Amino acid sequence: MSKVTNPDLPLPAPRANDAQGLAASILEKLTYEVGKDTIVARPHDWLRAISLAVRDRIIDNWMESTRRTYEDGSKRVYYLSLEFLIGRLLRDSISNLELMEEINEALEQMGVSLVEIAQLEPDAALGNGGLGRLAACFMESLATVDVPAYGYGIRYVNGLFRQEIADGWQVELPENWLAHGNPWEFHRRESTYEINFGGKVDIIEEGGKEPRYEWKPSERMIAEAYDTPVVGWRAKRVNTLRLWSADPIDPILLDKFNAGDHIGALEESTKAETLTRVLYPADANEAGQELRLRQEYFFSSASLQDILRRHVEQFGDLSLLPEKVAIHMNDTHPSIAVVELMRLLIDIHGVEFDTAWDLTTRTFAYTNHTLLPEALESWPVPLFERLFPRHMQLVYAINAKILLSARKEAGTDDDAIRQISLIDEGGQRRVRMGNLAFLGSHSVNGVSALHTELMKDTVFYNLHRLHPDRINNKTNGITPRRWLKECNPGLTGLIRESIGDAFLDDTEKLQALNDLAEDSSFQERFAEIKYQNKVKLSNLVGERLGTRIDPAAMFDIQIKRIHEYKRQLLNIIEAIALYDQIRSHPEMEWVPRVKLFAGKAAPSYHNAKLIIKLANDVARVINNDPAVRGLLKIVFIPNYNVSTAEVMIPAADLSEQISTAGMEASGTGNMKFALNGALTIGTLDGANVEMRDWVGEENMVIFGLTAEEVEKARADGHNPRQIIESSKELSQALSAIASGVFSHDDPGRYTDLIGGLYDHDWFMVAADFDAFAAAQREVDTIWNDRTLWNVKAIRNTARMGWFSSDRTIREYARDIWRA
C-alpha cells in the first residue's frame, strides 16, 4: 500500500471538552478499548478508560504542535537523559489541559471518584532522584514556554528497584510499572535503528582519496521508539518524550534451537532484554560496568540517528545542524554521544573530521550535576575499545586535536595537559567522559551559582582555563504545576482566592503574598491547610507502616537519595542526642517532633544501606520507649517515589537540606518544600545559597561550615576525634550507636560506620554536629511562637517564585540553545 501524502485530507474533529462530551468519551473507551460494561468495570478499567479519553485531547494539541514546528522550521531542542522521573501522568495531564472541573463532573455522573482512580496509576520507574525529576520538570516547562523539544531516554522495563524494608534493611525488588501496559505511550514501529557493539574496524583505501573507516560490529540489536506526549501548562504546546526499547535482530536462533540448545537459541533476545531492564545496574563488578556503558551508548546512538534522520528529511543540509538542532546532555551519562555524532557524521555522512568536530561542538551542550569525581564517569580503555573500536579511534583523534591545540596556549604545562586529556594515564588507562562532554560542547553549565564557581576551581579547573567562556550557570527550578497546584490544592485555592490567578502563569507573582504574611486571618487559614496536609501524611504512614504520628507535632522531613554527603547520618545522630536530652530532662518543655526519612540507597553502596538500617533501628528504640512520652518519633517510609513526595512535601514543617557544603550541586527538593511553606534548615550548599538570597536568611535556619571552610579543614587535616571528644552530646550519641544500644542483635553492626567519623570524617558530620544541634534548638524556639513560624512559612511560599523551571528553561533557551 502506498504512503498517503495528500495534505488536503480533512483532519479529525477535535474532541469535545465539556462534561457531557468527556463522559461519552470515557464510556466509549471503557466499552471499545477496555472491553467492559459499566456494570462489571473494575477501578483499573476506569483508570485506563479515563486515561485514554484524556490522551485523545492531548493528541489534538500534540499534532498541532508538531505541524507548527515543521512548518515554521523552528530549531528543536533534544534533551538526552538517562532518567526521566515523570511520576503519575493522569492528574497532571488533566490539570494542564484545564479540564479538572469537567472531568470531575463527568465522572460524578457515573459514580466514579477521580481521586481514588488516580491513585491506582503506577509511578513510571524511570529515575532515581533529583536528576530524573529535574528532567521531567524541564520537559513540562519546555512545552509550557513553547520550545519545540524531544526528550530522549530508555524505556526501562523495571527501572529503579522497588524498595522494601525487611527487619530494617533495604531489600531491592523489581518495579513492575509496565506489567499492565502504559496508556500514555505510542509504539513507533517505523522509528527503529540498528545499534552495534564490538567487532573490528576496516580501513577502505580508495585511490587518491582519504581512507575511509568501516566498523564491522560483532553484535547488533534494534532500538524501537515509544513516544509519550508531554503537555505544557494550558496545553500551549505538547512535546514528545521518546524512550527506547531494545529488541534482538534475530529473536530466536532456530539452528541452535533445533539442535537442542534451547537456552543458547534465546541468547540474542536475552542480551537485548537485559539492556533495558534496569536503571543503574549495580556497577561494583565488571559485568555491571559493561551493562551500564552499553545502556549509555544504546540510547545515545538511537537518539542521534533519529535526530539526524529528522534533520536530513526536513532540511537536507548537515551544515545547518547547529542552527536547527540543539542537543543537551543531562549530566555525563550521555557523553558518549559526542563521539557517536562524530562517527555518524564522518563514517555515514562523509563529513571531513575538522568540519564534523565544529558541527558537533556547536550542536552539543552539557549540564554538570556533581562535583563527585566518580560521578563524572570514566571507563577502562580495554572495555571501551572492545565495545566501541571505531569510537576509540575517534577519541584518540579528538584528543590529539585538543592536546596539540592546548600546547600552544601559554601556561599549559605537562600537568595541565594530563588533566585536560581525554585519557587518564594514572594507573589503569581510562576514558574520561566528563572531559569528553566538556570539550565536545559549546556550553557547560552548573545548576546553582555556588556549584558553577566550584566547577571552575575543582573538577574542570584546567579545562576552564583552556575555555574560560564555556562554563555558565543555570540555577535549577521546579514546575509549579506539579509541586504546588497539583500536590497542594488547598494552598493553591487559598492563594488564588487571596491574590488572584496571575501566579499560575508567572510564579513570581506569588510575591503578592508578602503583604498577607502578617495577616492573622490568612495565617490561620494557611496553618489549617498545612495541618490537613499533615493529616493526609499521617494516614499514609498509618496505612503503610502501622505507625501512628500526631499531625500536631512538628513534621521534620528529609527525603532524598541516601548518600553520605547528603548526611542522613548527621540527622539520625542529632535525633539520638535529642532522645537522650528528652529522657534526661523531662522537666523541660520539648517540642513534639516527628522526623521522617525516605530515600533509596544504591544496591552496592554498603554505608548508605547501613544508614537506612540505623534509621530503622533508632526508630524501633525511640518509638517504643515510654520515657519519650511521644515527644519524638522516627519514621522511615519505604519506596520513596514521586507520588510519595507529593504527599510528604505539602505536609512538611521543616525541610532538611543538610548536605556537606560544596557537595550538593543544587537540590530541587529544597525548592519544593519552601514553595509549600516549609522552613529550611540547611547548610550554605547548592541552591540553598540562592534561596537564602530570595527568601531571606531570617526565614531559614542556616548552620555549619561553608564550602571554603570545608575545603580548608580537609586541606589542614582536621581532627574529628578531638571534635567528638570535646562534644558531650555527640560523643555520647556515637558511643551508643557503636556499642550496640540500637543493635542488640548485632552490637558491632555500626562499629566501622562510626569509626569512620573518628578516623577521617570526610563529610564533616562531626565537624558540623554542634552547629546542627544548636540550629535545631533555634527551630524549636521559632516553632513555639506559632505566629512567627507562620509568618516565616508564608514568606517562604511568597518568595520562591523565581525557582520555577519555566524561568530556568527560558534561560537555557536564550543563552545556550538559541531556541
TrEMBL record:
Give the family per the record: Belongs to the glycogen phosphorylase family.
Q: Per its UniProt record, what Gene3D superfamilies does this chain match?
A: Glycogen Phosphorylase B
What does this protein's UniProt record list under function?
Allosteric enzyme that catalyzes the rate-limiting step in glycogen catabolism, the phosphorolytic cleavage of glycogen to produce glucose-1-phosphate, and plays a central role in maintaining cellular and organismal glucose homeostasis.
Q: What is the lineage of its organism?
A: Bacteria, Pseudomonadati, Pseudomonadota, Alphaproteobacteria, Hyphomicrobiales
Protein name per its UniProtKB record? Alpha-1,4 glucan phosphorylase
Highest rank taxon of the organism: Bacteria
Q: What is its EC number?
A: 2.4.1.1
**Key words of the record:** Allosteric enzyme, Carbohydrate metabolism, Glycosyltransferase, Pyridoxal phosphate, Transferase
